[in-house]
Structures are given as C-alpha cells and as structure tokens.
Amino acid sequence: MSTPSLTALPPAPGQSRGLRSITVTRADMDPRTGLLDYVVRNDAHTWIRRGGGLVAYGETARFTVTGPDRFTQAQEWWRRELAGAEVLDDLGIPGTGLIAFGSFAFSKTSPHESRLIVPRVVVGCGGDGRAWLTLITADAEAELSAEAAEAALAAYLSEPDAGRSPGPGDRLGPGVLSEDQYQRAVAEGVKHVQAGELSKLVLARDIVAHLETPVATAQVLRDLAVRYEDCWTYAVDGLIGSTPEMLIKVENNTARARVLAGTLDRANAPADDPDYATRVLAGSEKQLHEHQIAIDSLTETLQPFTSSMTSHSEPFVLQLPNVWHLASDVTAQLAADDDGRVPTSLALVQALHPTAAVCGTPTTVAGALIRELEHLQRGPYAGPVGWIDAGGNGEWGIALRGAVVETPTRVRLYAGCGIVEGSQPAAELAETWSKFRPMIEALGLSR
C-alpha cells in the first residue's frame, strides 16, 4: 500500500499553496561548458549532458510516496499542482515554466521514498546554447519579474560550496555482499536461467566509500559531466551519478530512448586494435542476445503509446571513458488516447519501468529473484531519475553509474550486470568494478 506525503512548504501569512512561476530568457551559454559554472552547490539538483540541461536550487514543494502505485500518485499530485498554478513563460519550450525533479525507487516493495521536488530557481540551457532562468514560488504576493529571478539566483550563487582533496583515511569498504558472495549469487542466477525460468536476470552489488572529510557533491558532478559528456549527469536529493541510459525523453509528442546491454571494459583493451570493441561486442552471441532482450522489452512496452516507432536495425558501439556498450536508440511518435491526451513522460516511465536492462525478463520472475539473491535494498539505484515540466515533456534516465550520499562522509555506490545463460561469475564481478569506476574516480579514490 502506498503512503503519499505532500510536503509543499506551509504557507506563511500572505501565501497560498498555488505555485507561481516566471521564465525569462538569458544570454546564450556555450553549450559545452555553460551550465558547469552553476554546479557550485552540493544541494543543487542537476540534469546535464554536453553542457545543456538544468541546474536548480532550493525547494518550493515536495511530494513523497512509497508502494506499487508511486508513479500514479506522483502524476496525480503534479496535475493538482499544475491546475492551480500561475505560469508566466514566453519561451514555452521543454524545460521552461513549472518543473519538478524526480527520483523513484527501483522496487515497488522498497521502503525508500520516491519523490518529486519543485525547486525555487532553475537555470536551463538547450542544446543550441539558448538559456533561460525560472523562478518558482508559493508566495501569492511575491514579485514575478526578471529582476526578482536574477536576484534569487544571485543569492544561491553567492555562497558556493568548497571542493575537497582526498585524505589518507579515505577508503572503499565492502557493501552488503562480499565479492565471493556476489559471484555465488551470479552462479545461482545462471542456474535459474539455464532451468528456463527466465532469459535474463540483472544482479547488483554495492560498495561503500568512507571519507575523512565531507563529500563535495558539486565537485563530483562537475568531474562526471566533463569526463562523461555523452552521459546524463544527475543529482536529486543525494542521488548522484552519470548515466549512459535514457529510459525515456519526451519532447513535443516525440519520445526517445537509449537502450544499453552488453558491456566491455576498456581498462585492458589493446591500444593497437581500433576494431577491438566492435569485434568483441558485436561478435559475441551472449552480448547480442542480452542486447536484443533489452531492446525487445522496451519497444513492445512502448508500442501501445505510439503511432510510429523506429530503431537501429543493428546496435552501435557506445564509447565511454571506462567501458564500451552495445547501444540502440529508439524514436517514437506518441499517439493520443481516446480522450485526445498524449501520454506524459512520467506516464511512459510508469509503463516502461523496470526494463529488462536493469531487472531481467520476465520482470516478475526477475524481480523476485533479485530480492532473493541480492540481499540489498536498491533504493533509488536503477530507478528512474529526471524531470517533468507542465506540458508533460521530460527526460528520465535510469539511475546507473551512481551513488547515494548517506551521510556527509559515507557514500554508497551501486553497479549491476545482466546475467544470461553464458554468464561467468568472475567476468560479471569484473564488470561491476568497471561500472564502479566513474564514481570511484570522481570521489578521488582508487580501488
């Protein structure tokens, strides 16, 4: 049973619960670096790729919920907030106007609270360098003007958070499962696949970073955004990372997704073999099989919401600083329902999650095995993370290559692997270390 909790900030004298916002145009930014100048606070919410995206500060309203209907409850809350809102937005493009950042638990049984957060100030930048600033308030008497928005932004930027240097006491510690225990879990998962109970199972594990001094989240995010520019660098309420996998993006009735399945570590790749990744990944029956399961799962689920859909006939090799992936991009035109409404990005998240890429196939069998074999609470790891605007546009990634800041000096990292019939426990363990690497390095640690 879900337990929703509305914590929109209580109204003071002169306030109403109705949200009010203004969006104004700002001078264009360099799309390669512009938003990085605003990632200066450890409490900022971020969504950045190749210099474009959103950085937000403060909090005007918050909604939290647990349970299997967490997506439905969140959508209903967002609709109620929009119904009574006053919005001044001359730009009218995706990401402007009223916006909420979100993070959702991976599992419907998780006690972790899924959340939507409406910030106070948002700086946005499109892929073309076009920039804007949004001010959001619940104060019925607050001034909505460009000057008020700039003043609010300046107040947040006036006290940037300091970075940190690695200390001799910084260390990585084990998580819930040891390396040996994880390998035994993988071996057990392979047995279930071989028995025909399912075709794929995704098993994750965690490790813990113990730091001498408080984590500098903004510094970590800037490092990730620069080094992993083809990924989506995210931060929502202590969930941080840089994901290569787009669950769904909706922009003016067009939906896009990026599916990854199939991984090759770059650490030991031969330097004199430019075709190595393509040959090893595209030539591997195991990797191609795992990828096809993931792409079929997404397209079959997305199909009822679309009027047309296209995807790569063959996966391409996505090169990241730590690994190569087999990847496929899917584009779909969304269809209106019988009432003439096009599904929002959050509605599609509800339909698509969990995907085969982070759970397995079939998902009900895989989900039960995950709870049996992993022995950990994933919380928001591998759950949807991103944003939605008043028009239903949004971008939702899968919270991978990331971590949860549990205390100022303790950060829990997560990584998982797709287990199919040909999986080898030692190889899957090594793959988790390659996926931990972005966060380990961004924290200034070493294995």
Account of the 3D structure:
This is isochorismate synthase. It catalyses: chorismate = isochorismate. Pfam families: Chorismate_bind (PF00425). Residues 179-435 form the Chorismate-utilising enzyme C-terminal domain. There is one protein chain. By secondary structure, the chain is of the alpha+beta class. The protein folds into two domains: 5-157, no CATH class; 171-442, Anthranilate synthase (4-Layer Sandwich). The chain has nine helices and 24 strands. The strands form two sheets. Strands 2, 3, 4, 6, 9, 10, 11, 12, 13, 14, 20, 23 and 24 form a 13-stranded mixed beta sheet that branches. Strands 1, 5, 7, 8, 15, 16, 17, 18, 19, 21 and 22 form an eleven-stranded antiparallel beta sheet that branches. The longest helix is centred in the middle third of the chain and has 18 residues, at 285-302. Residues 3-16 have low confidence and may be disordered.
